[in-house]
Specification:
Elements: H1 7-15, H2 18-38, E1 40-41, E2 50-51, H3 53-64, H4 66-81, H5 105-123, H6 130-154, H7 163-170, H8 175-185, H9 188-196
């Protein structure tokens, strides 16, 4: 199935290179997610670092569509699980599968689902205009926070924090910066669509 409603589907169909472009795009977004993880700022009051990954996840999902966006993040997680150094650098959190059990595990596990939802909304045309692009990306970001805070509160190893502490350390400090990131990211795909399809 070709996601002709997405930016990737449109570009691939236009150049009659659907399969090579789709494979390359999935690999590229997966690699970009790993790269964004390395731009990591530890914060003294929380085990969750500040990274650019959510923005990459949301943009990748919107550009690739639901299935391919999800595939790019599944590939990213698989690379991390087998031990490749694709997760954010940490002096205390291990690379590999054990990272998913730690305090940031919920955020990481959320990425395929956030990319899927954002991509699904993009397939319906929400990525073509600024305000609807904000809605699509905010919806995906809500998935990231829902998974991340829930895991931090109830399941994270070595000890869950409880809901109140999880909200204070895993949600509230990140909301202002992530709102700015969403507002900026939401400008990108509508601008690209105007270039690809000037009359849309």
């Amino acid at each position: 199935m070709t996601n002709t409603g997405t930016l990737l589907g449109t570009l691939a169909a236009r150049h009659d290179l659907t399969t090579p472009i789709r494979v390359a795009a999935v690999l590229f977004v997966s690699a970009l997610t790993a790269t964004a993880a390395q731009i990591s700022i530890p914060l003294p009051f929380t085990p969750v670092p500040f990274t650019l990954q959510p923005m990459v996840v949301l943009l990748g999902g919107a550009a690739l569509g639901s299935r391919l966006g999800m595939a790019s993040q599944v590939l990213y997680l698989a690379a991390g699980i087998v031990g490749l150094p694709v997760f954010a650098a940490s002096a205390v959190l291990p690379q590999g599968f054990l990272r998913l059990l730690g305090p940031t595990g919920g955020y990481l596990i959320s990425y395929p689902f956030a990319a899927y939802l954002t991509g699904r909304l993009a397939e319906r045309g929400l990525d073509r205009h600024y305000l609807t692009s904000v809605i699509a990306m905010t919806s995906g970001l809500a998935v990231v926070f829902a998974f991340g805070v829930s895991w931090l509160a109830f399941f994270a190893q070595p000890a869950p924090l409880g809901l109140d502490a999880a909200l204070r350390t895993g949600l509230y400090p990140f909301v202002p910066a992530d709102i700015i990131k969403v507002l900026l990211a939401a400008t990108i795909l509508p601008a690209v669509w105007r270039f690809v399809q000037p009359s849309s």
